[in-house]
Amino acid sequence: MIKQVVEAYGKLSKRDLRLLRILEVGQHRHEFVPQELVERWARGKREEVLDSLRRLHYLGLIRRNLSPYLGWKITASGYDVLAIHTLRMRRKLLRLSPTPIGVGKESEVYSGETPGGLKVAVKFYRGGVSSFRYEKAFESKVKRFKHLRWVYETRLSALAEFFALGKIFEAGGMVPEPLARTRHVVVMTYIDGVELFRLEGGDYKKIAEDVVETLRTALKLGIVHGDLSPYNILVGGRSYVIDWPQWLPSGHPTALDYLMRDLGNVASYFGEKGVEIPVEELLELARTSGTAGELFTAEINKYIYY
Ligand SMILES: Nc1ncnc2c1ncn2[C@@H]1O[C@H](COP(=O)(O)OP(=O)(O)OP(=O)(O)O)[C@@H](O)[C@H]1O
Ligand SMILES: [Mg+2]
Fold first, then answer.
1. How far apart are CA 9 and CA 59, in angstroms?
2. Which of 103, 140, 240, 267 is most buried, taking the most CB atoms under 10 A from its CB?
């Protein structure tokens, strides 16, 4: 849980954070970074380095390996700390709520606040949902780092959602505005609303119009949501489509299957409310595919390590 992570972060010195960073870089070469190397790279007094390692270990941010040599690696909580620290330094995040507003199989979402007082949603990705969609670009980047595969899968999820939100938001679709991404974490504007599946009564025609308009926008860009259902629609003053990490380019061999399923889900939900979804028109848009797939491949090449 993020509460412990935030508390741990509060106990770290600059030196501790620097050591964590050193391990992050060192792990590209070593599954467990030899303590000998950590000491050399840290360039501090030996006692101070050992003291930092002890604290990081005690707080659950790093793991120790004793054999065949003494070495260290970062835990999932350690990566959370690094991400939170980067967002702090970039002035994108000041506070995080102690309890999640949403927990799925592949992510945890917390509310938070920026230094400017803006309420945000902060999504931590715990798993990979999309590596098979970008196999070539992704595999060529991570094949040298087999032991870091899960780390890069979570980063790919964050990168994918940040990309889709950015493109759709810029084009005028109703999605949260993405504000920052680092590693496996995305910060976006907080939507004050309730998930559509919880809604009891409302202007379903207006809700459907927002959803369809957002789908049009996404499909023109070549983006198929891939997990669309009343669970991923937030209804406030307007209605927003959320949860895009598993999106796929409309040119992908399986994109049409996913799109049919997405549209089937919303069409049957709104159908029960007496509102029709223009399924044929949306399917047609997916056939004149946009360029999101190529653009995103270029982003993987550029940003997957950060
Ligand atoms: N921008 C946001 N503003 C407000 N609440 C949000 C926002 N993003 C997510 N949430 C809340 O968090 C919940 C989970 O978010 P989301 O659907 O993005 O991830 P998920 O369902 O956990 O993902 P996965 O499909 O990987 O399990 C949402 O149902 C919603 O209640
Ligand atoms: Mg969801």
1. 9
2. 240
Number of Cβ within 10 Å of residue 108's Cβ equals: 18
Residue at token pair 């979402």? 109
What distance in angstroms lies between residue 103's CA and the mean position of ligand 2's atoms?
A: 8
Q: How confident is the model at residue 131 (pLDDT cuts 50, 70, 90)?
A: low
Nearest ligand by distance to the CA of 242: 1
Give me the residues near ligand 2 (ion), CB cutoff below 5 Å: 232, 243
* 242 φ/ψ angles, rounded to the nearest 5 degrees: -115, 180
Rounded-to-integer distance, Cα 35 and Cα 49, Å: 10
Domains and CATH numbers, the chain: 2-78 (1.10.10.10), 90-306 (1.10.510.10)
Distance 72 CA to ligand 1 centre (A): 33
Query: Which ligand 1 atom is the nearest neighbour of the CA of 231?
Result: 29
**267 Cα–ligand 2 center, Å:** 18
The stretch 219-244 carries a mean pLDDT of 97
pTM here? 0.96
H-helix segments, 186-291 = 204-221, 255-272, 279-287
